[in-house]
């Protein structure tokens, strides 16, 4: 994750709401209008079903407190506004408690097509639809629970399993490959790129392979992992992931395969 941010977190009032400006709402509106047609075409069914369950507003920034009410009823999760950047330790703790940390600010017009750090559009539009599905909600919680047991030196290894599934995962749906991850759902270019570009390496989902695969946040991913079905994710959550991390460390990281182009998120 990025080390610093130029954005300042927006404060929550006594009623649990953030006072977003008219300009903030317009940025959200335009981001949704840009992204939704491709999401409808390229996103996997679990994500689209989650969108339908949440019915997020298209014309204004959603309030975390309102999204939380729906998630609590569906899977027992909630969304909590946080500063723009938090450390892995806090991130894992919150996931273990079925709380998703959401950066409270929204990007500026200058960063409309790409912002390195996560903002409220990425957090709410990208992440919360999958949290309506108990299978993905449970997997996210397990990542948090394992993260609390990890040594700090192991954080970067464990987070790769989250990165290549919840953030940038693909899944086979019939004869097609569809986008599953939140980073794809909220990206105007990587969503299409991940499922259709011939230069992309799409590998079968395999836990140790994923743990050994380095990534960068500032490019389109050159490698994606494809789930055959959601059951594979459930099976992964039941593994001894601490042992898997040690196995991956013994084997070492794969040689990085990085695309040269900048990505848009």
What does this molecule look like?
- The structure is a single chain.
- The chain has 265 residues and is of the alpha/beta class.
- It has one domain (22-251): Aromatic amino acid hydroxylase (Phenylalanine Hydroxylase, Orthogonal Bundle), CATH 1.10.800.
- 46% of the residues lie in helices and 10% in strands.
- The protein contains 12 helices and 6 strands.
- Strands 4-3-6-5 form a 4-stranded mixed sheet.
- Helix 4 packs across helix 6 (134-149).
- It is globular.
- Residues 259-265 have low confidence and may be disordered.
List keywords for this structure.
single chain; 265 residues; alpha/beta; Phenylalanine Hydroxylase; two-stranded parallel ribbon; 12 helices; 6 strands; disordered C terminus
């Amino acid at each position: 994750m990025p080390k610093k941010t130029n954005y300042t977190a927006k404060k929550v009032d006594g009623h649990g709401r953030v006072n977003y400006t008219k300009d903030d709402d317009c940025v959200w509106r335009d981001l949704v209008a840009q992204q939704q047609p491709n999401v409808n075409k390229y996103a996997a069914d679990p994500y689209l079903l989650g969108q339908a369950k949440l019915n997020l507003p298209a014309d204004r920034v959603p309030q975390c407190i309102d999204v939380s009410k729906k998630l609590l009823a569906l899977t027992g999760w909630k969304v909590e506004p946080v500063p723009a950047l938090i450390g892995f330790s806090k991130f894992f703790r919150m996931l273990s408690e079925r709380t998703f940390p959401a950066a409270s600010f929204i990007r500026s017009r200058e960063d409309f097509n790409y912002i390195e750090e996560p903002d409220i559009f990425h957090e709410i539009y990208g992440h919360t639809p999958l949290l309506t599905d108990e299978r993905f909600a449970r997997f996210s919680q397990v990542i948090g629970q394992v993260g609390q047991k990890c040594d700090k030196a192991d954080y970067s290894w464990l987070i790769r399993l989250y990165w290549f599934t919840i953030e940038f995962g693909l899944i086979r749906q019939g004869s097609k490959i569809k986008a599953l991850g939140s980073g794809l759902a909220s990206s105007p270019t990587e969503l299409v790129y991940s499922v259709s570009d011939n230069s992309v390496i799409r590998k079968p989902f395999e836990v140790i392979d994923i743990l050994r695969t380095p990534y960068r946040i500032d490019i389109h991913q050159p490698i994606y992992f494809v789930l055959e079905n959601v059951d594979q994710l459930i099976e992964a959550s039941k593994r001894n992931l601490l042992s898997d991390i040690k196995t991956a460390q013994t084997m070492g990281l794969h040689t990085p395969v990085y695309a040269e182009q900048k990505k848009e998120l």
